[in-house]
Amino acid sequence: MIEASVHAPKPLDFRSRLSQWGTDFVTLFQWLLATGTEGSKSPQLKSRIRMGNLLCMIMVLYCTAYGLLYTYFGAHVLAFVTETGILVAVASMVLSHGGRHLLARHLFFTYALFLIGISVQMWGPQYNIQLIYFPMAVIPFLLFTLHERRSLVATSGLAVLGYFLCQAGPIAWVYHLRPHDLSPTTAEIIGVFTECASLLLLVLPVAVIFRSMRSYEEEIHSTNQQRLEVEKNISIGQMAGTLAHEINSPLTTILGAMEMINMLVERNKLDPEKLKKMTDRADSAVKKITSITQMLRNLHYTSGNDPIEETSIQEILAEVLAIVLPQMHKKEVALVQDPSSARLPVHCRKYQVFQAILHLFEFALSKIPKSQLGATVEVSWADEQDSVELFIRFSGEGLSDEMIANINDSFFTTSSDHRDQFPGLIMASMIIQRHQGSLKLENSGENPCFVLQLPVRPAEDLDSPESESLDVDALLKSS
Fold first, then answer.
1. Closest alpha carbon to 453 in 360, 387, 354
2. Is 44 helix (H, G, I), strand (E, B) or coil?
3. Are the C-beta atoms of residues 362 and 424 closer than 8 Å to each other?
4. Which phi and psi (to 5°) does residue 5 adopt?
5. Distance between CA 289 and CA 247 in Å, rounded?
6. Which of 217, 290, 377, 469 is most buried when burial is the number of CB atoms within 10 A of its CB?
7. Which domain-ending residue is among 227, 255, 279?
8. Max intra-chain CA distance, the chain
9. How many domains, in total, are found in the chain?
10. Buried (b) or exposed (e) across 30-52, using 16+ Cβ within 10 A?
11. Which residues contact 46 (CB under 8 A, 6 or more apart)?
12. Is residue 82 part of a domain?
């Protein structure tokens, strides 16, 4: 008879417990960070909500650390160092998330609240009013308020009023004016309710601003869609004239060949050699028209079903040049190409990469003044083992170092300022990143240069359903 032995679970050692606590903390942190983002359709709004959650968690940790260090342990210097570090960290996050305008308001609000708090302590009721909240209390206002909708004075006034009501208004004055015949328990209950009402006065404006921002994000999205539709219609109108000229030229060739054949038939002078020459000329013209219509189809190609295929960077570039060369001739911009004829194969979604490179050319041409002497667009490429690099250097005299820095920053941020300034570049960057490549703008020489890097064979996750549903037109509208 075999006896079954039951073994008690082994107790976890300290390292295992620490690892488990760390995993639980990360899970809780991610859950708190994503709170409130489930019903948000706008990526920009989700980003702001996540940033708000992060800063609120920092505020709680900061207040806890400050209270323990200053109130219970008396470590005033360490509390001051902690406060300074938190302020610097928050300022860095605000700068990277919203830019210099948001950072300026953050600093303005912080110092305004600091002065208000000091004034209340000096000239207000003589009670111990804690100031541990003043560096962080205004963060929600900064995140959910847009300078396009509200002025700096109105926003700062709202923040200062909420802080004053929370820290110095009802609480201290109720304690100061409370009747002497109330019991301590009753006075304590009144104080608790008053403090809750004060906190509610501070939180309510945040909720109102947050709600208005949701509607504002929808308005911005709708306005951007309308603006992009207008720009697309203008571009189509400008391109229609160019395409009409490009199609008329081969049509004239075909018409001339047919007339020549008819004339030779009427005169009974048609020989096989001349007929072959005329038909070859007409066939070449037909192929040119076919390539032009193919390029036109590519411009409005929704790439949800665009397969991953082997092509070459030169083949994609040739299709792009078929579109932009007429614009370059019109602006008197010369094209300089790499004389190397080596074919550089890549596995990619061809029409997505076509769209990305086309946007780079359109941006480059928009930054070249019309009739600029010696204006050029230089195109070259290089084989870097497992990747292919494409270089597009252009005569962009109007590009300052600050603008180049903003363009490079636009490839890694969702700031609305960048989306409004560089919608085509944002779209190109999104496409290249989906292909696990990179895009940047360099200014190492006299002229700026786009450097586009694509892997020769991307990883397997490019075939995932999420990537398969990538719609270029949808990306353009969402940017």
1. 387
2. helix
3. yes
4. -105, 135
5. 6
6. 377
7. 227
8. 128
9. 2
10. eeebeeeeeebebebbbbbbbbb
11. 37, 40
12. yes
* Domain span at 454: 305-478
- Whether the CB-CB separation of 346 and 387 falls below 8 Å is answered with no
The rounded distance, in Å, linking the Cα atoms of 239 and 245 is 10
Boundary residue ending a domain (209, 227, 245): 227
Other beta carbons within 10 angstroms of residue 372's beta carbon come to 14
d(C-alpha 77, C-alpha 85), whole Å: 12
Global model pTM greater than 0.70: no
Is 326 found in the same domain as 215?
no
Rounded to the nearest 5 degrees, what angle is found at the Cα of 16, between the Cα atoms of 15 and 18?
65
d(CA 136, CA 143): 12
Q: In whole angstroms, how large is the CA radius of gyration of the chain?
A: 33
Q: Can you read off the two tokens belonging to residue 301?
A: 């190609």
CATH code of 390's domain: 3.30.565.10
Amino acid at 475: L
Assess whether 319 and 461 both reside in one domain: yes
Q: Is residue 182 part of a domain?
A: yes
The tokens for 12 are: 């976890």
Please name which of 141, 139, 146, 142 lies closest in space to residue 217, comparing C-alpha atoms. 146
The helix/strand/coil state of 35 is coil
Alpha-carbon gap, residue 106 to 141, rounded angstroms: 9
How confident is the prediction along the chain (479 residues), in pLDDT tens digits per residue? 444 444 455 555 667 777 787 787 777 777 766 766 665 556 666 666 666 666 656 666 666 666 666 666 666 677 667 766 766 666 666 566 555 655 665 566 566 656 655 565 555 444 444 444 444 454 444 444 444 344 444 544 555 555 555 555 444 555 555 555 666 677 667 666 666 665 565 555 555 555 555 566 667 667 777 777 777 777 667 667 667 777 887 888 888 888 888 887 887 777 788 788 888 888 778 777 776 776 666 555 555 556 788 888 888 888 888 878 878 888 888 899 877 767 888 888 888 888 889 888 988 888 887 777 788 899 998 888 788 999 999 887 656 666 776 676 655 544 444 444 566 777 788 888 888 888 888 876 678 888 898 988 766 545 544 444 444 444 444 43
Residue 148 to residues 8, 93, 101: CA-CA distances in angstroms? 64, 21, 11
> Looking at the structure, do residues 203 and 326 belong to the same domain, yes or no?
no
DSSP single-letter state for residue 442: E
How far apart CA 274 and CA 262 sit, in angstroms, is 12
